[in-house]
Amino acid sequence: MTGEHDAEARFCEQLRALGHPARLAILRALEERSRCCCGDFCRDLPLAQSTVSQHLKVLTESGLVRLERAGLRSNYTLDLQALFQLRAALDRVLAARAAPAEEEVRAEIGQCRC
């Protein structure tokens, strides 16, 4: 049961990490460039370096972004495995609700008097 609880907690942590526009912008930048340092994000986002660092910390702690140290430089990359696992978890959540939701939408469309 602990493993299932840990996975659920990780899932929640990752969803929270995605809940801020700056963190989504950081993920998009990493997708485009594959590797960035904090200064790269500071140039692209209208945020102070300390704010960017805090967002990177949240993304790193959630497991969605990896930190790689190269001497004095810290590079950030997407953790694709973690992102695919998050996507799979979301797919499972949506699949459990998909059939009833489709029926509700079809019923609403059928009742539409547009």
TrEMBL record:
Cross-referenced CDD domains: HTH_ARSR
Positions of the HTH arsR-type domain: 3-97
Signal peptide location: none
Highest taxon, organism lineage: Bacteria
Gene3D superfamilies named in the record: Winged helix-like DNA-binding domain superfamily/Winged helix DNA-binding domain
Alphabetical UniProt keywords: DNA-binding, Transcription, Transcription regulation
Record protein name field: Transcriptional regulator
Organism of this sequence: Propylenella binzhouense
Taxonomic lineage of the native organism: Bacteria, Pseudomonadati, Pseudomonadota, Alphaproteobacteria, Hyphomicrobiales
